[in-house]
Description:
Elements: H1 2-11, H2 20-32, H3 34-37, E1 48-57, E2 62-69, E3 75-81, H4 83-89, H5 94-105, E4 108-116, E5 124-133, H6 140-149, E6 156-157, H7 162-171, E7 178-180, H8 191-200, E8 203-205, H9 209-221, E9 227-230, H10 236-241, E10 244-247, H11 253-258, E11 261-262, H12 269-285
Parallel strand pairs: 6-8, 7-8, 9-10, 10-11
Antiparallel strand pairs: 1-2, 2-3, 3-4, 4-5
Helix pairs in contact: 1-2, 6-12, 8-9
Amino acid sequence: TKNDILLYSYLSAEPGANDPIESAVRFAAESDLEILKSRPNKHEVPGYKVTGFVPFNPNTKMSNATVVINETNEVFRVAKGAPQVIIKLVGGNDDAVHAVNTLAGRGLRALGIARTIPGDLETYELVGMITLLDPPRPDSAETIRRCNAYGVEVKMITGDQLIIAKEVAHRLGMSRVILDAGHLVDPDKSDEEITQHCERADGFAQVIPEHKYRVVELLQKRGLLVGMTGDGVNDAPALKKANVGIAVHGCTDAARSAADIVLLAPGLSTIVDGITTSRAIFQRMR
């Protein structure tokens, strides 16, 4: 049921994490579930005790919680994460794949929730999917258009699936030439070939942090000047490597120290101000 999905996703959400997805999951569960509304202690779920927690990791693309049911002392695990990862974890599910693709076609992200079957901590079954609307920022399309007008090419990098990336690119007025990030590290292709693909692509999907560094590296080998945005610890190498590393609003200290420019306002429109200002300075110097 809907309540099962909300309960299990709440149990596997990181308490106190400042992550927009975790906040959304916790808020949805707290708004809907009766047992979470009237509880005396905000940090506990009545009847359950979380004994272990593995936070979300960009490489595994899921978080994992070990939970004890107080009444029966039964132990189970809950996993929450990228739909393709969870579907693989439960051994495949065609209905779920179809549902995820249908949602993605409408630009909606999905999160998979799975729990272990009673008496076995290794075998998972699918509980269900949560849908999330993660629209581009309202100023993004305009920012991209202005960058292009200044001769700056914009490429989108996302951990989302290919189908969602294409939908978002379309909404932002970009072409839908999106590469699966797996191509960037394909051992069967020559560096030359990968570099060409990288240069032609409008974006990359299903990216893990190492891929960001790879994109910068390939484009720089072509003699291009590369600016890269990022906010997390794992973006720091790519920000450092880029000609201009741009840490966005609300970034971690690691990203801030690796970057050349730190944006203080939310969104990306400030980048265009940076371009116009630096060009004015350059003209004066000339």
